[in-house]
Amino acid sequence: KEGPGGLTVAEITNSLAESTIALQGAHVMTWQPHGQAPVLWLSRFGKFAPGKSIRGGVPVCWPWFGPHAEDAKLPGHGFARTVMWEVQETRAQPDGATFISFGLIETDATRAQWPHPSSAKLRVTVGAELKVELATRNTGSAPFQIGEALHTYFHISDVADMKIKGLEGCTYLDKVGGTTSKTQQGPIVIESEVDRVYLNTESDCLIEDLGLKRQIRIATRSSRSTVVWNPWIEKAEKMGDFGPEGYRGMVCVESANAVDNVVTVLPGAEHILQAMISVEALA
Ligand code: BG6
């Protein structure tokens, strides 16, 4: 049906959860298991317009993450989040969850930016857990490299009442004030702008939220990087689509393959990045 800004959205409601997914970007905008506060953060001040990335939910960054390595004119985080995808399959699962898959629609414009024969699919399972899989198939005869992220915005009660666990001891590139390499000591606490790419990450990430008395668990497969981002006051104001104090209620924990962890996809091979998101009560 028609969603905000005239974007076409799929609305899914089942016995376990509800979710709204825009066809532009195959962008999961909301996911709310019944009886829970929203798990994803979606800006109320976002642009919601054709060709503009939605601020919140799960933007799909593909086939590169951040600025393009060779051509600064190409869009940051790739083009997948701003082009149209089509629904390819919907299916009810035995446990009551809903499976829906999307394929990126290739056009002359996408081929001009990404000349490698390939297909991109996003498979989403909406249930008590949200499972998102981004599958890249190399349909050509030469290998190519991709960067990617499920750039997930999480809804939190207040950034001051939140900690991120699971990245202790990992090396990260700190992108605030020039790029430097650092090692994470203890859980992540956010008290100013944070923009970090954690490399070679293996463990589940936990967003512990004392205000909502819950923790969000992010389990992954074939994701070697984790990006943690909160723009804080000035950057959020400059971006113009966070709204007043918007940065306080969100944190991005992105399941990614970026920087040193970009992925080579061989001819005929399919690479699948997966994120499984669930919510647990805090004792
Ligand atoms: C994060 C990047 O993944 O996305 C940040 O690490 C960036 O540097 C942020 O600012 C938001 O990007 P965009 O393109 O959605 O404004």
TrEMBL record:
Keywords assigned by UniProt, alphabetized: Isomerase
Active site, per annotation: 151, 254
Check the record and name the Gene3D superfamilies matching this protein.
Answer: 2.70.98.10
**Keyword Isomerase assigned:** yes
GO molecular function terms listed in the Swiss-Prot or TrEMBL record: carbohydrate binding; glucose-6-phosphate 1-epimerase activity
Keyword Isomerase on entry: yes
**GO CC list:** cytoplasm
Q: What is its EC number?
A: 5.1.3.15
Q: Which GO terms describe its biological process?
A: carbohydrate metabolic process
Q: Which family is this sequence assigned to? A: Belongs to the glucose-6-phosphate 1-epimerase family.
For this entry, the protein name equals: Putative glucose-6-phosphate 1-epimerase
